[in-house]
Specification:
By secondary structure, this protein is α+β, with helices and mostly antiparallel strands. It folds into five domains: 82 residues, GIY-YIG endonuclease, CATH 3.40.1440; 142 residues, no CATH class; 108 residues, no CATH class; 165 residues, Nucleotidyltransferase, domain 5, CATH 3.30.420.340; 54 residues, DNA polymerase, domain 1. Helices cover 46% and strands 19% of the residues. Strands 12, 13, 14, 15, 16, 17, 18 and 19 form an eight-stranded mixed β-sheet that branches. Strands 9-8-7-10-11 form a five-stranded mixed β-sheet. Strands 2-1-3 form a three-stranded antiparallel β-sheet. α12 crosses α13, α14 packs parallel to α15 and α19 packs across α20.
Length: 597
């Protein structure tokens, strides 16, 4: 797949949190960074002069930008750490060492200890995190320490050793911080109940603990101990903002490959995430052209084999959104919930963003290909017999039947063709009758196109539900165009799309390009129609008031409004000002009308 120019890559970045990677002309990684908003952060590198010589040199070398979209800024922070440690980019200074973010460990031992650590040791212990700040870890451990008495010594508290009296109570017991399991003063069962409660706290289920903190804060405040109350309030704030789980890292998920696929009518986009010891160490998306209208299953199976060969992957397990047959000695997992499911969703999100960016890039680099693709997609989504290259959309505007008008907007190749827009004064309908108005304007529009030998559209859209659609269909019937032009209605509330003689509406994907174009047509028709209606109403209101003055006709009204620009200025004008425009006689009539009490 040919890489688009750097300017195009910058224009199509998403406004989402994530991690970005810079590569040079040889595909060698230069830098890994994190961002709350990828587009703003990455664009900033190219929009200013850098104080740092190192950054200036790096920016000159950048030829390709890749990124991984994640759910939150915290995830971006953790993923950046993993990638820098794995890839060791030349221009990164921080995070290259073997230090990592802290975890909370519940040790695999009798009477388990609970402590913070930066190292994960595979000895069956439980690790929770990682945490992006030691402040959160310390707050959680303070909370645990305040609620439960746990040992801090590193004795091997085997049952026979305790029975033989090999250990003596330490200072922690005498200070009231430990219940003395080393001398059998606390049962293993009671201790393990505390450990289970602690597990719930580090998983984020600390509703009871928060309530206890709030009660303590209130008690301190009532005793005027405001510093102590503030200290506890700070702890509450940290806990409320604490996110117990991160999709990016989970030590229980070992070496695994994750795949997902997103497709449209001509291409498939397959994302690959590589996990090592629970951390994402690679993300890559490929675009695959469909040759024989392959299914999602077939595309994903082809991509899995190709990607695993390309990256020499030896993982024995893969996570996928649905069952696939890849003909290898592989464990295939289709996760249904939990962190495994979140990892697959993260992969799908990256595939969708990649597809959107390719669309945007194509729009800039190869607009014809983009238009062809969108038209083919619309034809398929709307079940049409031919591509809707020429679309017309109708909308009625009236307020309680006054000044009824209608608008017709025209899109060609998915873009507004403003020179072809038309507005209609409703002539044959009395009162607010949207259905009859719709029938009149559709009939008038296509009778005229037929008479003048103009091109007819491939698709007509009427703004409204079944009633307006039926009116449009009747007009086409009267002109003998039924079946020659596709016609649909769009109802505002649920964005339902109605077809003639089909009681069940069509619901399009809310993010689909087809629905976006239909909504754009509908909104443009509404804007165009309402502007025409307001202008007509205002003009009518002005004319009516001045024309109601005995002895003043339409010609005089036009001269007055042309000169004074508004009714208010006409009212405030002196006899002299009025005389200069319409003569002394009529000036006197107008002045007296507004100034005689």
């Amino acid at each position: 797949m040919e890489k688009p120019a750097l300017e195009v890559q910058l224009k199509t970045l998403p406004n989402s949190p994530g991690v970005y990677q810079y590569f040079d002309k040889n595909g060698k990684i230069l830098y890994v960074g994190k961002a709350k908003n990828l587009k703003k952060r990455v664009t900033s590198y190219f929009n200013k002069n850098h104080d740092s010589h190192r950054i200036g040199v790096m920016v000159k070398k950048i030829r390709e930008i890749r990124h991984i979209v994640v759910a939150s800024e915290t995830d971006a922070l953790l993923l950046e750490n993993n990638l820098i440690k794995k890839l060791q980019p030349r221009f990164n200074v921080m995070l290259k060492d073997d230090k990592t973010y802290p975890w909370i460990c519940i040790k695999n031992e009798r009477f388990p200890r609970v402590f913070p650590t930066r190292r994960l040791i595979k000895d069956g212990s439980e690790y929770y995190g990682p945490f992006t700040s030691f402040k959160t870890v310390n707050t959680l451990l303070d909370l645990i320490k305040g609620l439960y008495k746990l040992r801090t010594c590193n004795y091997d508290l085997a049952e026979d050793k305790i029975r033989q009296g090999k250990f003596k109570l330490c200072l922690e017991y005498h200070l009231g911080n430990c219940k003395g399991p080393c001398e059998a003063l606390q049962s293993e069962e009671e201790y393990n109940e505390n450990i289970e409660a602690i597990r719930q706290i580090v998983k984020g289920n600390f509703k009871d603990s928060l309530q206890r903190f709030r009660n303590q804060m209130k008690a301190h405040a009532e005793k005027m101990e405001f510093e102590d109350a503030q200290r506890i309030k700070n702890k509450i704030d940290v806990l409320e903002n604490y996110q117990a789980k991160s999709t990016v890292v989970n030590p229980k998920i070992n070496n695994v490959d994750v795949f997902s696929v997103v497709t449209d009518e001509g291409y498939g986009y397959v994302n690959f995430l590589q996990l090592s010891h629970g951390a994402i160490i690679r993300s890559h998306t490929i675009e695959m052209k469909k040759k024989l209208d392959e299914s999602d299953h077939e595309l994903l199976e082809l991509a899995i084999v190709e990607i695993r060969q390309r990256f020499s992957s030896n993982s024995k397990e893969i996570y996928v959104p649905f069952k696939v047959d890849v003909g290898e000695d592989l464990k295939i997992t289709v996760p249904k919930l939990g962190d495994k499911k979140k990892i697959v969703e993260l992969s799908e999100r990256n595939a969708k963003y990649f597809r959107q960016e390719r669309f945007k890039q194509m729009k800039i680099v190869d607009p014809d290909r983009h238009v062809n693709r969108v038209m083919a997609q619309m034809k398929e989504d709307l079940r049409l017999s031919k591509e809707p290259r020429h679309i017309e959309c109708f909308d009625n505007s009236n307020i309680q039947g006054s000044n009824p008008v209608a608008a017709c907007v025209v899109f060609k190749n998915g873009k507004p063709s403003k020179k072809d827009y038309r507005k209609f004064n409703i002539k044959t309908v009395e009162g607010p009758d949207d259905f009859a108005s719709m029938e009149e304007v559709v009939f008038r529009r296509y009778r005229r196109l037929l008479n003048e030998g103009e091109d007819l559209p491939e698709l007509i859209i009427v703004d409204g539900g079944k009633g307006q659609l039926s009116s449009g269909v009747k007009a086409l019937d009267d002109l003998g165009l039924r079946g020659k032009i596709a016609i649909i209605g769009i109802a505002k509330r649920l964005e339902e799309i109605f077809y003639p003689e089909d009681p069940i509406p069509l619901y399009l994907d809310k993010k689909s390009e087809t629905l976006k174009i239909i909504q754009q047509l509908r909104n443009e028709a509404h804007r165009f129609g309402i502007t025409f209606h307001r202008n007509k109403r205002s003009k009518a209101a002005l004319n009516t008031e001045l024309e109601s003055i005995p002895g003043i006709g339409e010609k005089t009204v036009v001269e007055l409004l042309k000169h004074f620009r508004s009714l208010k200025r006409v009212k405030e004008a002196t006899i002299k000002d009025l005389s200069e425009v319409v003569g002394a006689s009529r000036a006197g009539i107008i002045y007296n009308h507004y100034h005689t009490e």
